[in-house]
Amino acid sequence: MSNNQFKRGELYSFITGKASTAIARRLQKNFKQNNVDITIEQWSVLYHLWKEDGLSQQQLCDATFRDKPSITRLVDNLEKLKLVNRVASKEDRRINMIYLTKEAQELQEQTMGIANKTLNEALEGVTHGQVEIAKEVLQNVYDNLK
Amino acid sequence: MSNNQFKRGELYSFITGKASTAIARRLQKNFKQNNVDITIEQWSVLYHLWKEDGLSQQQLCDATFRDKPSITRLVDNLEKLKLVNRVASKEDRRINMIYLTKEAQELQEQTMGIANKTLNEALEGVTHGQVEIAKEVLQNVYDNLK
DNA sequence: GACATATAGTTGTTTATGCAACTATCCAAA
DNA sequence: TTTGGATAGTTGCATAAACAACTATATGTC
């Protein structure tokens, strides 16, 4: 589809991603109200470790779409919070394997519940079919650019 | 619509907004390649001033969905770059009116072209109808949360 | 085995965000 | 006219992102 010409206002709001900013802020607020003291960026790292514990920092880069310095510092902060541990790989000493602590494991259920609730607040009045199409478009955009 | 239950992977990518991150990065890269040395955040402020010059900082907060400290500092940096000037309002001395310099006015055409090109790269293979629905969903999410 | 190259991770610098606390100005009600 | 609350903007602090430059380890090739 070659001709998606945009009018000014549409273009701008599409690029700046106000909707995802708004969801992120609301999620952070809902974490705070439930006394969950982590940032959404930290949560996004834990999210992947809950799916598969013991990922390398490079795997976390790929999974979270962040560069290496970002992951280094997020893992630094998660370590300070006693939520993860760096463990040097025995096969390849360049690699740090990141493991969840017990405390982090216990955060999963609560925070996933908050995230689900937040998303339902955000999608009030949007039909399932619309959401499916929106996700397809966003995935397509991501694939085009990555 | 009360029941938009999300599966894990879907939920995550919807919240983290990888697509808008990807667009933002590509736009920044395209600016750089064309020797436009501003950040996309700075560009997003200029964008609203091109539509209407002489907005107050508070109006820029509302327009760009940022808080007051963020706008204070973006305007600080735009002033350093000689792209805007702060002018104290004569009617209300609390208010700073922000005006574009000639140099900033000249950036409009070029950067809007780059932004349009970037968005077309991003939307390759997406139909106009799909884009319309995606925009509706994102607007709806924004309205639900703001 | 030695060397070039690739990969994993870290550090420094600049820019930006979110929140709280602050100053200055305006305005309305007593 | 004073006083109390609202509004506009700034500053300080912590977290995070992008980019470049760096160290350490691994690997493939001669």
Explain what this protein looks like in three dimensions.
- The structure is a homodimer of 146-residue chains.
- By secondary structure, chain A is mainly α.
- The first copy, chain A, has a single domain (8-113), classed as Winged helix-like DNA-binding domain superfamily/Winged helix DNA-binding domain (Arc Repressor Mutant, subunit A, Orthogonal Bundle), CATH 1.10.10.10.
- Helices cover 66% and strands 8% of the residues of chain A.
- Chain A has seven helices and three strands, in the order αααβααββαα.
- Chain A has helices at residues 8-16, 18-33, 40-51, 57-64, 68-80, 102-122, 128-145, and strands at 55-56, 84-88, 96-100.
- Chain A has a three-stranded antiparallel beta sheet.
- In chain A, a hairpin with a 7-residue loop joins strand 2 and strand 3.
- The longest helix of chain A is centred in the last third of the chain and has 21 residues, at 102-122.
- Chain A is globular.
- Chain A binds a DNA duplex (30 and 30 nucleotides) through residues 25, 28, 39, 41-42, 56-58, 66-74, 77, 92-96.
Indicate the low-confidence ranges of chain A by residue numbers. none
Beta-strand portion of chain A reads 5-15%
- Rg of chain A is 18 Å
Q: Give the oligomeric state.
A: homodimer
Q: How many domains would you count in the coordinates of chain A?
A: 1
Please summarize what this structure is:
2 copies of one chain form a homodimer. The first copy, chain A, has 146 residues and is mostly helical. Chain A contains 7 helices and 3 strands, in the order αααβααββαα.
